[in-house]
Specification:
By secondary structure, this protein is α+β, with helices and mostly antiparallel strands. The protein has nine helices and 14 strands. A hairpin with a 2-residue loop joins strand 10 and strand 11 (226-229). Helix 8 packs across helix 9 (325-335).
Amino acid sequence: MTQTLPVIDIAPLRLMSDKAMIADTARRIDAACREFGFFYAAGHGIDPAVVADLLAASEAFFALPKADKAAIAMDKGGIAWRGWFPVAGELTSGIPDLKEGLYLGEELGANDPRVAAGLPLHGANLWPETVPALRPAVEAYLHAATRAGEALMRGMALALGFEAEHFARGLTRHPTLLFRIFHYPALARGAEAEEGFGVGEHSDYGLLTLLGQDNKGGLEVRTRQGWIDVPPRGDALVINVGDMFERLTRGRFRSAPHRVVNRAGVSRYSFPLFFDPDFVAGVEPLPIDTADGEPAEARWDGVDFHKSTGTYGDYLTGKVSKVFPDLADARLDRDG
């Protein structure tokens, strides 16, 4: 029997009115995070029209000539790490990805305390003048997806035995919100055309990822039984646990390897929101019972999750610098 990821309606976690449904949703989230580290989230509250506007504006941006996209390249974004990068401009495990993308995040002005303090990955977005529809489309989607992230974190807290607002009062009081638009260009058709990896095998390094995607497919997740497809299911988001959540729960929640396969003749778009801890928050393991959650064997990538990491910002900056090493060498040394 082919494995499929569970579909969980998270509307009860948005409405917070039916205690029985809230408890059942949290229970289902706990089971999915233990077994797969992935699940589909229905009932997330993002209007389909908002998604349609985002997709249309994204297609318009990535159809621009390279010179127009390069006008907002990442090397113009400063330590906020915002802007466009070309195909093969991002690395996964040291290997260039077959995708291009636009790095975005929470729009923060110069007088925001986090920007004034010079925190990396915080600041203003770079917007293309030639696609004015992109900014309102991104901001509408990011607002709605952030609300969905807050609902999911209530479910995570309840699943771990805490009060619903446990994380909102501490770890994610001021979450680090990193949003990406990725374009996976179609590979050439032909008898010798082969599939390629838009993103190679990896696990996300943050807390929680909320992935919106078009109807093309290509995402694959490695389960305990092997690789499975994660095709689009209507307007449901794909949710996955990141390395930091696995670390915080000492393995009770699983951060699963996944990858994206590019196929001949198929161009794909995806919209991941990385809902992460406050940049200055400490990230020591949570006070929970992990007797049945300790990893039975070493992680696939050899990472030791018992090693102390200090603040989330310390951890995140080190991770991001490996994705864009040239930018990191030039920017973090200069500005940090």
